[in-house]
Amino acid sequence: MVKRKGRKAAKVHVNVESEKASIKSVLDSCMKAIENSDIQSFSKVWAHEPDIVVLGTDAGERLFGWDALKKAIQAQWAALADVKTTLSDVTVNLLSGGRSAWATSVTAFEATMAATGKEIEISTRDTWVLEKRNEGWVIVHVHHSVGRTN
Questions:
Q1: Assigned domain for 40 exists
Q2: What's this model's pTM, rounded to 2 decimal places?
């Protein structure tokens, strides 16, 4: 916001608890879309821009842009069956002005490899970045990591 001489900048009132609830709802919707292989619902919670970034758990899993993410999630859905996700330990923090936020969570991910029937279980620690747009909150970045075992 640009201040003009002789004018005070208007304060924007942000209902922090309401915004945090909305962000948690976006994260829940993302997980539900993943479980249901629902590209329309998944699409609603992500920004559709070339500069979004997803960092996954594999060393080479770095996705840049909506098109790359969409292709990767559809490939994941083709390879997996019986996907279950549980999001826990969610914390949400609004950044100055209430138009962007970051969140952390733990995700329990379970699935079955469609080709082999092998079961997969993984727990990730997640960091999310979201922006509030005209249509509401959308995800612009996520980083999933797996805790190292000794």
A1: no
A2: 0.88
